[in-house]
Design a protein that fits this description.
By secondary structure, the chain is an all-alpha fold. It is built from five helices and no strands. It has helices at about 5-20, 25-40, 55, 60-80, 90-95. The mean pLDDT is about 95. The radius of gyration is 17 Å and the shape is elongated.
Length: about 100
């Protein structure tokens, strides 16, 4: 596909901002994010975790460190998310897994 023109990109972003400003849509997106991370993701085999699930990683000190590092990286990567998209609070995931909660700076 050819790259978007500046005008097409601006229109797309405006449309997305309008769409995501709807409280019902934001609520549904956040519910889906919570369901994904707190139910599905924690039981999925993650390649960067050597094919272990996050729940399996919690059983060893090395696995816990590896998992904490991954979640920290995910949190940093989330900072690049467009401001109109809701973010997921990784402390919810940490709490579900029994990892230490990080203070927000």
């Amino acid at each position: 596909m050819p790259p978007l023109t500046d005008e097409a990109r601006r229109k797309f972003e405006e449309d997305q901002r309008r769409l995501h400003a709807n409280p019902e849509i934001r609520k549904a997106l956040l519910q889906n994010l919570e369901k994904y991370y707190l139910k599905g993701w924690i039981a999925s085999k993650i390649p960067v975790l050597d094919g272990w699930t996050p729940l399996q990683c919690m059983k060893t000190p090395e696995g816990r460190l590896q998992l904490e590092a991954l979640i920290n990286r995910m949190e940093i990567m989330d900072q690049a998310r467009p401001d109109y998209l809701p973010g997921f609070d990784m402390n919810l995931l940490r709490g579900k897994l029994g990892l230490p909660i990080r203070n927000k700076a």
